[in-house]
Design brief:
methyltransferase; Methyltransferase domain-containing protein; 12 strands; single chain; transferase; Rossmann fold; 4-stranded antiparallel sheet
């Protein structure tokens, strides 16, 4: 395990207490419990927002101040990011959306793999969008489109993409039901969702509990959104690589 990894993660997690993060705007509930339709509000983990869905507390997100952690040199080795992209079996004409794209760590690698397709880099934080546009201009990547999302919408047209990638971001969605409705709408028939989350079953994964997900919890939530688990590829060191298809 990387001590540097832990230090970086803990530092930037604290940043989210003071900034509006990706797909999250709810405040912690100080006392008691409230119900708002499908969501529950109550006290929980100090790293959570006090909002619960299907028994899982939604986590605070990392603000754009965490870009250096996203782009850390050791990330490729720690997370085996090249294996993740291999798992996606990207074809030369695939249209792909990276939801919660951040600084574009995966976006520009995927763009090279689908030169005849388009990669949509979706984020809601202006700081991340600025970084994405700057990198697109710097690398002159014509097949990347930067898209500003919202807390409830990925803002992509219906049936517009073949594959959707969500890396360590779903557990931070303030409105998971609304977001997954939008995700499902954007996927073409036969399209696949690649849900990457740190393994909640593994205590050895050096990530705070609220920022992990178990396979069983992910399957429950995706089933409620109309997705079925096709397979969970177990070749990543710390993360699930769950492949879902829409039913």
């Amino acid at each position: 395990m990387s001590l540097t990894y832990n230090l970086h993660f803990n530092r930037f997690l604290l940043c989210t207490l003071f900034t509006v993060g990706l797909f999250s705007s709810e405040s912690c509930i100080s006392q008691g419990e409230k119900q708002d339709g499908i969501y529950t509000f109550k006290q929980g983990d100090p790293n959570g927002i006090g909002k619960w869905y299907m028994g899982r507390e939604i986590a605070y997100v990392m603000g754009y101040q965490g870009i250096s952690w996203l782009e850390r040199p050791e990330r490729g080795n720690e997370e085996k990011t090249s294996l993740l992209l291999e798992n996606m079996e990207i074809g030369p004409g695939d249209d792909i959306a990276d939801i919660g794209a951040g600084s574009g760590y995966h976006v520009f690698k995927m763009a090279q793999m689908t030169q005849e397709g388009t990669v949509y880099a979706v984020d809601v934080q202006e700081g991340m969008l600025v970084a994405l546009r700057a990198k697109k201009e710097r690398e002159k990547t014509a097949n990347v489109e930067v898209v500003k999302g919202s807390e409830k919408e990925i803002n992509l047209p219906a049936n517009s993409v073949d594959k959707i990638l969500m890396v360590d971001v779903y557990h931070e969605f303030a409105y998971p039901v609304e977001m997954m409705t939008s995700v499902k709408k954007a996927l073409r028939p036969g399209g696949k969702l690649y849900l990457i989350e740190y393994r909640g079953e593994d205590r050895e994964v050096p990530i705070k509990k609220v920022h992990k997900m178990t396979e069983s919890q992910a399957v429950r939530e995706m089933a409620a959104a109309g997705f079925k688990l096709e397979k969970n590829i177990g070749n990543l060191p710390w993360q699930h690589c769950m492949v879902f298809i829409k039913e």
